[in-house]
From TrEMBL:
Gene3D superfamilies reported for this sequence: GntR ligand-binding domain-like, Winged helix-like DNA-binding domain superfamily/Winged helix DNA-binding domain
HTH gntR-type domain residues: 1-64
GO molecular function per UniProt: DNA binding; DNA-binding transcription factor activity
Listed SUPFAM superfamilies: GntR ligand-binding domain-like, Winged helix' DNA-binding domain
Name the UniProt record assigns to this protein: DNA-binding GntR family transcriptional regulator
Length: 212
């Protein structure tokens, strides 16, 4: 898990770029490990959608396009709504207050990393009380993919924003309007932003990302 977590963080942050080869011997040497835990780490990265294994080409960092961004957004919407509906009966005023604090922290963020951390905290707080560990683990993997898209689009700069959807979700939950909260949540995580990003070559490309 240690190796998989470290590599995942590098891939998500963009430190290891899409298409880059992950060399088993180099990773084993860096972490002072045998090839067995490295292979296990690679399988974990594949399960998370962060790496792909190609015949005769080894393991590479997965590339991504608009179709993959849409797929992650739709999966998040379906799974997070399911988790929220099971979590709703267990959401206390204290939990909702903490979720509101996370939203305020996101509003104050001056960089993409702190915003992503605050955003993920908000979602975890309102979903964790569902008490369904497999579902939450799947959602965590999807959030990792979302973070990767986000960092690829906003690596060099960040525009501060106010998250009105989070506030609307909290308001609905406080009033016991679970279906309304679920509807807003589904729409929220399926919104895909687009912006031009300058590549190392100097050329620009359109980046798509989930900002929710």
């Amino acid at each position: 898990m240690r190796i998989a977590k470290a590599l995942a963080e590098r891939i998500i942050s963009g430190a290891i770029e899409p298409g880059a080869r992950l060399r088993q011997d180099h990773v084993a040497e860096e972490f002072g490990a045998s090839h067995v835990p490295v292979r296990e780490a690679f399988r974990r990265l594949e399960a998370q959608g962060l790496a792909v294994s190609e015949a005769r080409r080894g393991v590479r960092v997965a590339a991504f396009d608009l179709d993959e961004v849409k797929e992650v957004a739709e999966m998040r919407a379906a799974l997070e709504v399911l988790a929220l509906k099971h979590a709703a009966p267990h959401l206390t005023a204290a939990i909702l207050d903490k979720a509101e604090e996370a939203t305020h922290a996101g509003d104050r963020s001056r960089d993409v990393r702190s915003w992503e951390e605050a955003n993920r905290t908000f979602h975890r707080l309102i979903l964790t009380p569902c008490g369904m560990p497999r579902l939450l683990a799947a959602i965590d993997d999807l959030h990792a993919a979302s973070a990767r898209f986000l960092f690829a689009a906003w690596r060099s700069e960040w525009e501060t924003r106010t998250d009105h959807d989070h506030r609307a979700i909290l308001s609905a939950l406080r009033q016991g309007q679970v279906d309304t909260a679920a509807s807003i949540l589904a729409r929220h995580v399926q919104w895909i932003g687009q912006r031009p990003v300058r590549m190392q070559s100097g050329a620009t490309r359109e980046a798509f990302t989930i900002v929710g």
